[in-house]
Amino acid sequence: MESLTGKIALVTGGSRGAGRGVAVELGKAGATVYVTGRSTRGRSTNNWPGTIDDTVSQIKAYGGKGIAVRCDHKNDAETKSVIERIRKEQGKLDILVNNVWGAHDLSIEARPFWELSLEHWDTMFTAGVRAQLATNHFAIPLLRENEHALIVHTTFWDEDKYTGQFYYDLAKNALIRMSYGLSIELKKDNIAVLAVSPGFMRTELVLKHHKSDEEHWQESEELIRTETPYYVGRGIKALASDPDVMEKNGQVLRVGDLAKEYQFTDIDGQYIPPFTI
Q1: 3-state secondary structure of 110
Q2: What is the rounded distance in angstroms from the CA atom of residue 136 to the CA atom of residue 141?
Q3: Mind listing the pLDDT tens digit for each residue in 167-183?
Q4: Contact indicator for 174, 125 with CB cutoff of 8 Å
């Protein structure tokens, strides 16, 4: 696989969770990584652990280059400004990882659709699906100026099984179709567009919910099948480093399958198979 040295990447929703894991792994591989999100040092959304500044500090600790840019991707002007800044500072964009996801702002309840608040639409579609769509809208003209590029959408997929939460299921499948449609439209530009599905991740918020941490998670039976956010990061890094990634254009790829194909493990040395419902 190729090094990512000289590549410019944008990872949205990079304050914590999958976004942080992806940004750190791309940075470790040599890419210059722009990290966006709402949480900045001293001003974290909902006082949650993790900020874009923390993510950049972690990238730099590994010898990489990261640039934190506060952005609320529900605001089109702010999203457009991020792309304009990348164009001005770098002149190109090679890798776009669409990870921004607003559903954390509302508790995801596993109840029948008709009993759920319509607010779920706003958190999952306005702050999730549309936010990723808008990032694509502003970024694709810059990506098309390259000889080749990569767009990844993080989502969840388990061979068309219903996830059990109507809005979550609808939103995650919308991201898959977004990836597929763009893969067709951008194929002639040699831009690979993929959807990548991690498993049950031990994110900062998941550990907080279970009153646990990375040193004690194995004590919780509910966390036994989990993986760290760096696992999906390593999967996306492998894809970004693969000169033949266009062969996967338009596909939904599970991280456990990528680990087997590209021969990587989670940061604790474990191979975690694809998550199933």
Answers
A1: coil
A2: 9
A3: 999 999 999 999 999 99
A4: yes
Query: How many domains are there within the chain?
Result: 1
- Write the CATH number for 18: 3.40.50.720
Mind listing the pLDDT tens digit for each residue in 91-148?
999 999 999 987 665 566 778 999 999 998 998 999 999 999 999 999 999 999 999 9
* Owning domain of residue 64: 8-262
Close Cβ partners of 219 (under 8 Å, ≥ 6 residues apart): 212
Q: Is 30 left (phi over 0), alpha (psi -120 to 50) or beta?
A: left
DSSP character at residue 209? H
CA 164, CA 168: separation in Å to the nearest integer?
8
Token pair 């338009």: residue: 250
Residue 269 lies in a domain: no
Q: pLDDT value at position 107? A: 63
Inside any domain, residue 53: yes
